[in-house]
Amino acid sequence: MSTETPGPDAAEQFLRDFLRAASPQQRHTFVRRTGYDDDTLVRFVLDDPTTDRASALAAYWILGAGYYTRYASADEVPEPDRPTWELLRTIEERYAAGFWADHGIGFDPTDDDEIDWTEGEGDDPEPYPVPDVMLRAVPGEVVDDADTEDGLPLDVHLRYTALLDA
User: Fold this and answer.
1) Residue 61 and residue 58: Cα distance in Å, rounded?
2) Which contacts qualify for 57-60: CB closer than 8 Å, 24 or more apart?
3) Which pLDDT does position 11 carry in this prediction?
4) Is the separation of the CB atoms in 26 and 151 below 8 Å?
5) pLDDT score at 55
6) Helix, strand, coil: what percent of the chain each, to 5?
């Protein structure tokens, strides 16, 4: 009996290959517009230091950083949510250490297409407050994500969905 973990299926491998070769702007669009039901591919993007720091900041807020401030430690987080809490801490550490590149992409957590991800932060004492650096905008150009579906260029999305349906 094999104990090996199966590798990515064809559809996931196709996306990994696309994201590995994608421009910083394409990765940023993917991070901002993909579904987060399964964050495997977002983690894949965030593990690459050539990803733009604005993309990491966007992922941080989209993953629910504000929600997780209620937990002072991983031990307090319900088991199904613990991997996300841990990923948020990793993003904070890497962000503060300058892990990600700066490709001139902008992201403002207080004004992301009129969404203020930081709303309510600091209003009440939180067991684990959001670090100040994560509240600040990254200056740069806002990425135009027109002509995308679920964060992917339309042609890539069509090929991906065809692989899912195969």
Assistant:
1) 5
2) 57/95, 57/107, 57/109, 57/134, 57/138, 58/28, 58/31, 58/32, 58/107, 58/109, 58/112, 59/31, 59/91, 60/88, 60/91, 60/92, 60/95, 60/109, 60/134
3) 92
4) no
5) 98
6) 50, 5, 45
pLDDT of residue 61: 96
| 160 in Cβ contact with 152 (< 8 Å) | yes
List, for the chain, all residue ranges whose pLDDT scores fall below the cut of 50: 2
Confidence at residue 149, expressed as pLDDT on a 0 to 100 scale: 94
The strand pairing partners of 107, in sequence order, are: 138
Q: What is the DSSP string of 82-107?
A: HHHHHHHHHHHHHHHHT-SB--SB-B
Question: What global pTM score does this model have?
Answer: 0.91
C-alpha R_g of the chain: 17
By the 8 A CB rule, do 109 and 134 touch?
A: yes
Greatest alpha-carbon span in the chain: 54
**How far apart, in whole angstroms, are the C-alpha atoms of residue 97 and residue 117?**
22
